[in-house]
Amino acid sequence: MPASTPPPLPEPELNRLLELISGRRVAVLTGAGISTDSGIPDYRSPEAPPRNPMTYQQFVGDPVFRQRYWARNHIGWRRMDAARPNPGHRALAQLERTGVVTGVITQNVDLLHTKAGQRSVIDLHGVYARVRCLNCDAVISRMTLAERLEAANPGFADDAIVTGIEVAPDADAVITDTESFRMVDCADCGGMLKPDIVYFGETVPKDRVTAAFETVEAAEVLLVAGSSLTVMSGLRFARRAAKTGRAVVIVNRGHTRADALATMAIDAGCSPVLEALAGAIGT
Fold first, then answer.
1. Are residues 233 and 277 in the same domain?
2. Would you list the DSSP string of 15-71?
3. Residue 261 gets which letter from DSSP?
4. What span, in angstroms and rounded, lies between the C-alpha atoms of 163 and 155?
5. In what order do the strands lie in the sheet with 126-133?
């Protein structure tokens, strides 16, 4: 007789989680760890390789860095666009439909919460699917830019070795042959184009931060899923929740910067825990 699949959480832990969440309004803050089961690697889990994401100053200040970015993104964004929501994303969307989750604040740019059917989502760091001109503020879709880049670099995507290629959480594909890649500028004004993503060293738009704080303050619990909270961009919401007496529940592989603030911290993957939570609340 085959062995039964072990539960994602011991029963006492699941009961404690249900005790903290059931009957309460829950705001959710997600990071890259919730998307690993969709094939998108994270930055800081114990298994993640070292990564050095491009900074805003590198992108705007150095054409070589910018060329390298666009060449790699020209491959990587397709992989991100093809990614599909995993059980963790779907569980949060289910919890929203049942009235438990009141809003999701995500540090991810992958749009997987929206693809899963989540209605109230704040894309704190922007999304991979839009491109913005830094001069005239015109916005185009990433698909539109892909068509222009393909016209300027015929066959580049076909020639790249894409089988098994690694793509980072910001849609940066690990390829090295980028010196021949031709960039394109804004079709309206000739200005510099940049993904509509908040880079390291760049400020999150104030309206998004305000909306995120309002989401936390409208809830009674903050559930952090798949974020180490290493950067202040996410940590500030956990600090605000704890300071104002709200329960903070963290589900993440490995330690986080907010463990000392947590009412409950679960060292585990997001998908099985969130799926178990949604299943238990739905029964």
1. yes
2. HHHHHHHTTS-EEEEE-GGGGGGGT---SSSTTPPP--PPBHHHHHH-HHHHHHHHH
3. G
4. 16
5. 139-141, 126-133, 193-197
- Catalytic site includes residue 113: no
Q: Count Cβ neighbours within 10 Å for each residue of 93-102 and write b for 16 or more, e otherwise.
A: bbbbeeebbb
**pLDDT per residue over 37-84, tens digit each?**
999 886 544 454 445 677 999 999 999 999 999 998 998 888 889 999
Helix (H) or strand (E) holding 265: strand 264-267
C-alpha to C-alpha distance for 90 and 92, rounded to whole angstroms: 5
β-pairing, 221-225 vs 139-141, is unpaired
Inter-CA distances, 232 with 83, 100, 205, Å: 27, 26, 14
* CATH number of the domain bearing residue 146: 3.30.1600
> What domain range includes position 272?
1-40+85-125+203-283
74, 89, 113, 125: which is the annotated catalytic residue?
125
Per residue in 174-219, pLDDT (tens digit) is 555 678 899 999 999 999 999 999 998 899 999 999 999 999 999 9
Q: Is 117 helix (H, G, I), strand (E, B) or coil?
A: coil
Count of residues for the chain? 283
